[in-house]
TrEMBL record:
The keyword Zinc does not apply. It comes from Micromonospora taraxaci. This is CopC domain-containing protein. The chain crosses the membrane at residues 166-187. It comes from the Bacteria. GO terms for biological process: copper ion transport; response to copper ion.
Amino acid sequence: MNRSLRMPVPPLRRNAVRLGAAALAVLVALLVPAGPAWAHNSLRAATPVQQSTVTSAPTEIVLEFMSRLDPTFTTIVLTDAAKRKVVTGEPVVAGAKSTVQLTDTLPNGTYTVAYRVVSADGHPVQGSYPFTVADPTSSAAPVVEAAVSTTPSAVAAVQTDEGRGAGVLVAGVALVVLVAVAAVLLWRRASRR
Ligand SMILES: [Cu+2]
């Protein structure tokens, strides 16, 4: 196309600004509803540590969250490799920490800690993680996994922190939009020469 033919057309820069504004509007629309999701409570630390192997059976499970817990809505459930519930005490909440005592010594094997707590905005947050007991001096027979069992990695993948999931999704969409806008702007700048 001849350069002179393009002269009457409004400057391309104006189109670029308009496109940028549209992209910004899309970003704001995506980010605003997800805002409260970032305020959701999440697990900060745990004992036994997530995905760890401990050489002596733990006597308690301690979960520490990012913000204070409501004792009424704090649940911690321990299951063995055969998905049987392990008897524990009731969760004892102190600030952002919750502890359950284990009444019996855990036999060697892989266990899953599942938790459900409530965020400041009232939305529930739940997740789970595995840990393994491998005590070389343990005489108890290890818990055998059920035939259709979940491997530790599959259990880890099941972790459902709703807030984090929404945040990652929004970040992904925002990234795609930004890359698309950048590509269009670069293409327009290149085609102007
Ligand atoms: Cu919420």
